[in-house]
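Quick start: load a record and inspect it. Here is TniQ domain-containing protein:
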Amino acid sequence: MKSAPRWPLHPAPREGEALSSWLNRVAACYQMDMLDLLEHDLGHGQADDLDTAPPLALLTMLSQRSGIELDRLRGMSVAGWVPWLLDSLDDRAPAALETYAFQFSVLLPKRKRKTRSITSWRAWLPGRSIHRACPLCLNNPTDQAVLLAWKLPLMLSCPLHGCWLESYWGVPGRFLGWENADASPRPANDAIATMDRRTWQALTLGYVELPRRRIHAGLWFRLLRTLLDELNTPLSHCGTCAGSIRYIWERCGHPLRAGQSLWHPYEILDPTIQLQMLEAAAIAIDLIESKVLSPRGEQAVLFLPEPLTGFTNGLPAVVQKTEPINHWQQAVKAIGDAIVEARHNPETARSLFALASYGRHDPESLERLRVTFVKEGIPPEFLSHYMPDGPFACLRQNDGLSDNF
Ligand SMILES: [Zn+2]
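Running the structure step on this input writes:
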């Protein structure tokens, strides 16, 4: 086969840039429209598959035109991220969702989550096009590269500038407008910036440094997708973990499950809902890492700091010193954690009240305790089992208090 002549001008692709974005910038060098470049110079009549699965023949020709390696060009589309970001581009692959989003668990014990099954699904590929970009990255009108990751519901902020990605219209590099033209770049909070930096590390380096250990990019994307689904689990399925899920949403300032009442896979949700879900995932990770939450999912431990381990000095292990345990400090921390949980979980509130009221029998003392609990932010209705007119009422277990989660 005769090789195609080399383009005299072509900008170098930016790291993580989408194929369509790079072709737009190539076309701009010749004052051409990207579709015209595709059709008249490359013989490719459609543009909708460029960022998903560009045909090999097109990539081969682009490689000849630009001198850029085929693998690098392939990595500018989602197809180049299989099997790390997603298992397959085949949306009919059996049990794709179960395999991807239900084999791990972070916030909820594995048995708690109802496995969902749908016939047509691909991880992370949105139901409708996303037009979000970093206003600082696109600050220079002559060098406006759009990253592939910005076209997926995968990140909230720019990993390089730490500001929120913003909605735009038009074609970067040709004509571009911001939906909120007057807004200056908004810095993302630490929780969001940390999550997005890790996602960027996964995309560009193939691994992510978590507090406990370095994990493969494939595991990171699956953990993230697991979290997004756990946060979209109806509270009635969460049992005693319902309080934690509710707490995460409250910390975000968004309605529970981002206002969803019926379950749909993350990928087809409205983009505004997806952003709220991602924000909740970032907050959840932050709460786990700061030990405010201690979730029961198997993989939650990956977000905790490495426990202190003694180094070996060659002596038998029995004579090595171990770190003394401060039981009092641990107890104070456990009570602090229980108070946080009791603000959202009536069962914990009831148990904590029973513990705190141990040995108190007079109604006045119990009432003082109840007031203290309410001052700590525990809703009074969670303490409805406490009846001031009976000395042992606070210890009654079967009081009909229903847990309406
Ligand atoms: Zn940026």
